[in-house]
Amino acid sequence: MKKQIINISILLMYSALCFASSPKWLTDLEKAFPTVDYVRVVGEGNSESSAKKSALSELSSYFNQTITSQTHALKSIERDNFSYIEKGDVRQNLITSTKSDLFSVQYTNSVYDKRNEKYYVCAYLSRKDVWTVISQKMAVLINSCKSSLRQVNKETEIFNQLIQFNRTEQLYSVFYLLYEMALAIYPHQCSEYTSFAEKFVSELSALSSIRVQATIKVIVNGDKQNRINGKICSLLSQNGITVAETNARYVLNTDVLWNESQFNGIYSSIPQIQITVRNKNTGLASYATKCEKLSAYNQETIEQIAIANLEEKLEERFITECFQ
User: Fold this and answer.
1) Count of CB atoms within 10 A of residue 280's CB?
2) Is pTM beyond 0.85 here?
3) Which of 23, 28, 43, 210 lies in disulfide reach of 54, CB 3.0 to 4.6 Å?
4) Which of 265, 291, 259, 288 is nearest to 276 (CA)?
5) Which superfamily is assigned to 215-323 in CATH?
């Protein structure tokens, strides 16, 4: 009996020591980082680095869930399929991007739990600090959005209107992403931004007919398997630009050059593409790119790789160079 009491006492002492050595954020997160002042999460992993990654993932999940719950604000801004709700991975990129100083995510020192063989780390953000940065950036973006929209209305050429409209949309999309984050930080302080978003998206929606007016006929010379034509038309459609076979306002001319050769049974190709967008008299935009030299023993293989490489190049820069 005495031995059992001693064993129990030892266990209690061990538990007390473990509890005492644990940091406050691990035993009582709310006391260490009050919700009213911080966004904070605890991550765990088999190493300190994996625990940090887990914490970042949890931090992103917090924003995603909190933003989704703010449906009363978000739904009022979705009109006529003109939605700017971003995907979760975009939010995570914004939080974790090493190129962005928007969020200064801080970490506690890691703790290793021998019993669970796990590392624990707390990642946290000061709501006040994040709000200061977000509100400043949103103020700048609001002015940029308004200025860009005024420029859309000043343009007389439909194509130039289209380009400026696309730029305005991009600016607004950046603003909207920050607005979502602001809702997750201080939802009750966002009424000014909600009012701007509702009004601005309505103005954008009213101007969206520009895309319908800026109809484009696509002509591709030197195409193989009609793949390049299909890719260009697909990219235009994905970006809301109307492709038309007849009565188009603009013509997009594309020359595909394969630069093929054959020597000692080895086939080579240096595929390149040249694109111009014109109205009746004037060139309005252009894009050109060249792939690295390809070589293979089979001509069909070269052709398939060349087409795939050109499609990849088009995805990377074509829309940006010609329409933004």
Assistant:
1) 7
2) no
3) 43
4) 288
5) Lipoprotein like domain (3.30.160.150)
